[in-house]
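Journal club prep, shared notes

We agreed each person brings one worked example of a sequence with its structure written out as tokens. Mine is Nucleoporin POM152. I'm keeping it raw so we can talk through how to read the token line rather than staring at a rendered picture. Sequence first:
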Amino acid sequence: MSVPVPLKSSGSRPRNAFPSNARIPLDYCDGPTQRMYAVSAFVFLQAVKLYYWFGIARSDYAAEFFGFILWLALDVMFLMALNYLRIPWLELPIIRLIIALFILTVLNFVLFTAREISPSAIARSSLSKVWGYTGSSSSSRGDRTLIHDQDEHLLGRHTVLKKPYSTAIFNPDDRCYCVPDAGLKFLEVPEIPISFNDSDPHSLEYSVTSFETGLVSKHQVKGPFKESSAVFHKTRSQDGSKSTFNLVASTTGAYKILRILDKEDVDIRFDHSKEVYVVACPEARIDQYQEELEQCSGKGNVDIPITVRGLPPWTVTYRRYSHNHRKDDQDLQIDAEPVDYSSPWLPGWSKPAVPDYSWAKQHEMNLSVSMGLSTPGKYDFQVMRVKDGCGNVMDFKNLMAQGDSKAEIRHVQVRERPSVSMNCDPRKPIKIIKLGENPSENIGLSVNRGTGPYHIGYVYQKTDIDEPEIMKDIVSDNRLAKIVADRPGLYTLSYIKDAFCEGEVELPRDCAVTVATHPTVDIISHTINDSCVGAIGVTVDATFTGEGPWTVCYDVYRDNVRQGAEVCPSSTKPRLNLELKPDQSGNFEYRFKSVSDKNYANVKVEVPPVFQNIHPQPSAKFKHIRNMKTCRGSSEQLDVELSGTGPWDIEYRIIRGTEIQLTTLKNISQKSTKLTLPPFEREGTYSVDLGKVTDLANGCQKDLRVSDVAIEVSNGPPTVAFQCDKPIEVAEGDSVDIPIHLTGGAPWLIKYSLEGTDDIESVTSDSRNALVPVDKPGVYVLRAVKDSFCEGDVVEQAHRCQVIYSERPTMNLKIDSIRFRGGPRDNVPEGEIAPSERISREGDHFVLPAVCKDADRTLELRLTGKAPFTLRYKTVFKPANGGPDVISTPTPAVSTHATMRLPILTDRAGTVSYIVETLSDATYSNVQVRHEKRTVVFKHVVRAPPTAALVSTTKQVYCRNEITGVKESVSFKIQEGVAPYSLAIQILRPNKPAEKFFEHDVVPNKHGHFEWKLPARFTEMGLHSVSVLKVTDVNGCSSGSFSKVEFDILDTPSITPRRPVPDTCVGDKIEFDVHGQKPPFKVHYSLDKAKHTEVMDTKSRVFTYKATKPGQLQISKVCQTIERKECCTQSLEEMSTQIWAIPTVKIAGGEDLITNLREDEQAEVVATFEGEPPFAWSYVLTEAEFDAQHHAKHGRGRKPDSKGHGNFEHIMEHKMSFFTNAEGTIVPTYIKDKHCQFGSQ
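Then the structure, token by token:
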């Protein structure tokens, strides 16, 4: 017996003893409460969904699709929120969450989009499956009508409307209109709009009051009014029940409507007191616009006269164009009105007791636009537009763009005022140079701006106390002007004017002119003395007057003999110092002849000559300072030039490192001498330096500071030797380089010759390892060598090298050396030649054994020479069946060995010749290959393989009951090859392995045909095939074949109805079961003796016939589909059924009829029927739809609300009618006759 365990009190356990994952703490809201809230939210969400669904039951399809997307999104959001909150017992695993989402998606789809997935639709589908009946249809929800499903059996609509009163608004925008001038052909005559509500006018009466005379003229126009009507026409723009008509106003005046009737002669209401003013369009023109105005800049304003006409007040907009600066273009306005003018559009207007329209007459006023133009340039003034007092705007820019008006542009040319100034520096007067008979100087004038010719005035004043003298004006056609100043004094500009304007005189405006003085020179000389020889030169100081730069010219005489050309030193300063130190001794005289400055040239001077007896100091230098190279043991000479008084002694030094050798050359009498240096005994770098020179005549000695000469001495003479251990081979006609080795210093000059010839060749090299190019065979001998230091020696042991020609590559053309590889070698010992490899000679050709097409063969050749080898050849193919020869050049064959394998062409049947052209190796290129001085040709025959194909590959079809048991035969056609042949044949049967049969010694008949008897009967149902696998001729050539013939043994199918169907209606489906083993099947049937055939789907065994028209349907036979006229079938019992037509109801003859009713009127609704009585039908009265003009419309996008319905039964006639005054649209929804029905009640 178990002992009960006492439970602990719930108060003793904390609430969170079992942990929870809920987002909302259970302490705040416990689990049952959270679940209640969640379930309530879900139920509320689904209730709102159903309410929304009922609300859109009469909406359009777009609203239904939007509802599906909206509520699917809300359901997903609810499930995501539920999963996020983790409410105990409502936490859904991912798989359950997906299942719930799927169920809600299907529910939303059924509610909002799938109309056919509804209870009534499911019921209809079930009836169709059971009885094959699809003729009747019904709505899917509540009282939903079949407006969207109406077809040719429910035709016509009758809409009854109760029409309201019609109104019209004359000039709804309260505009003022203007009539353009008759010359403006592109401007249209104004049209006054009249807006109508719920009706169109049929008659219009209006009046026009003249502004000029005050007379009233009345007019009447009658409809119908179209868009093309001349006076009163309909516009294209329509807005619902509203329409707009325009009244053409071709004359000025006050327009007023008197009466408007619609097409039923009912008055249309409007405001009888309203008037519309049509005035003359405003105009604004520039007077005398064809004349161009000329004005100088800064000379006052420009006045542009403008005449304006129309209804005051005016606003004239004109534009000022600047041709120079587009940024200065401006659009300006001017407002104007006559004095004491008043109109309804101006403040203070009081309507007169007696109608007075004088204010609306055309007024005219002259305006003047004053413009200040200070910037020179070309300006254009043009009136752009004008606006009159009631808002009419005339845009001249658009009129000109349309070619309706000529541009009236007033051109104004503001001329630039010229200016003039002198090109003269007041601090530097212009000087007149006194040369020639009438010396003068030009004072340049700077003329700016303006247009030539220019007239420039100036005055001349000799001194400050003299009166100014007015000079003759200077006239210049361009801006290059000048004043010719022939007198010293002050020249001042007084004025300037050009072709149009007077100008300004700018600074500097005056210029001083003086006479330039001749230059002079003053000479002072000083002797230059030496402590040993005495006077060695003279110093000359020259002081100039005049204007620099200066040049002084003098001649030099030695012992009264002129020395060289004239000497002319220059100076930019007024003092010039010359140091004259000749390098020869003697009595020197310097005679100064002329002086030149900036203004005067070669002015003779009277200056005493400078005399001096000069003895120059001794000096010496090397004539050519250059670096020298020489060999050890050699001697060199250096050229030295001396100056001073001879004879001389020269002391020079030869320096090598720290070693110095001092040598003196004495009693030198000539100014040019040679220093002969002793032989250099050691290698290295030597330096030769001039130390002192002594003048023996005066006993004076001078230490020299001149550049020394460096001499580089090599260790020994250079050598040269061939690097040629064995004869060097070269191809005939090519050249080869013989390597040599050199010693010494670069560069080298090598001389060599060909033994047996007298020609000596030379070559230079900068490298110790040089190459001597030769192109002839023989023995080459080195003759001499010289480097940059000296001549050298030829090494006796390596001074000769032999060059010989290489042997040309050849091909061994002996029969035993040529191999034909790849043929069969059955029973042939190794080393012997098989018959398939035996090569023979036929005239000049090498004949290779014949091969079968597509065989793998190669030609093996033996070569001599230096690898690699390249063989060039071409092929000539002669087709076996005739035709032109095909000549081609394959890619050259290449081999790195002495054996070359040539691929044999076997891809086509015929004779192939290989013509060998050239052979190349590593030395020679393209050497012709000849055999006994003839072209080498290899030749062989390619045999065509035999082919075997079935004479007829057409598929043969037999029914199961047509099998006779007689053996069949197939015919093969064998071509090509040589008989007798061997055949390999294969037979495939259904569900059995393939069988192969071989036929040998086959000899076709004269037509090439061979009859082969089938070895077995084809009794199984299914597809059999006979094919040729391979055919071989007596030469062993064979080929495969894919030719086959098929035998199809077919079953005999039958057909039975699924259920008895004695009668049916158009639109129903009748189903039959087809029995057989191999679809597709072909069903033969007739409708009222008209025969038809239908091929069923390969996957279907049910034949479905959809009744599309009435008549007697009868199934005649069913068979398998084959490619011949007969078919495999069985005899059938009679299967027939009667198809009746669907009845039709037509309201208003099947058209959309609209009847407009006034009060106390009724409309007659007429319905006609097609079918066999008795009839029964139903209709629904829906809310009528209107357009903007309150006209009924029969749209298909929205389902209108239902306002009622009606039913009629037991109608024996084909026509009936009833009367109604209810507003709405009557639509048929159901029709039934004796046999069939359509729609829903």
